[in-house]
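#struct-help
A.M.: can someone run this one for me? Single chain, 243 residues.
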Amino acid sequence: MIDLTLAQEQLAAAKAEEIVTWAVDTFGDGLVMSTSFGIQAAVMLHLVTRIAPDIPVIWIDTGYLPAETYQFAESLSQRLNLNLKVYQSPLSPARMEALYGKLWQQKEVEALNRYDQIRKVEPMQRALRELGATAWLAGLRRDQTQHRQQLQPVVLQGDYYKVLPILNWNAKTIYEYLTAHDLPYHPYFDQGYVSVGDWHSSRPLMADDTNERDTRFHGLKQECGLHLPLSPGVGQSLDSSTL
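D.P.: on it. Structure tokens below:
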């Protein structure tokens, strides 16, 4: 256990590289990181692996990602020599659709939450357990969602510490880092996407969107559940009866 309040105070004004180094020194072999291979995924992957080259990189493959995401992941994994750990739901997409229908087409928060719990949350929790994680690095930023505005550089989510090195970064900071290190965006960036997940629940940014996360989940919610407290109050609890 760490003194969470003290750690938050120490890291409040720290640079991203300093936060990653602190996490490596503090959690050692218990530290992992997650990636979605989204629009700006190269930033965190490059930032972290420069300091911890062999860190386990968890990728939750929902089975519904665009072909370009799989190609982007393959290219970036080879370029950065990632220690990639791919996890999937025990329910295949076909089996899930047979049991529950195409949940994303129902365009209801309850259906989307069930989808996310099956395809994302359960695999992520299993990955953390199997890899013996005590903490994980994630590329959340305060300017992305209302929930993320309240976060600190290190927080406790369930049984795991979550460390957020680029929490205070913005689109300009991201662009400058990508440019400085000659890193690629996801191919969908050139099609107007600012955030990309599953093919059926992502779209390009429109003129009347007030937030980049409006382009996800049909605008019905901003979080997929991976970065929310695992409690019934947010509709993201792990319920084995759905598997």
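A.M.: thanks! The chain has one domain: 4-230.
D.P.: also worth noting: The beta strands are 31-35, 56-60, 83-87, 135-137, 154-157, 160-163.
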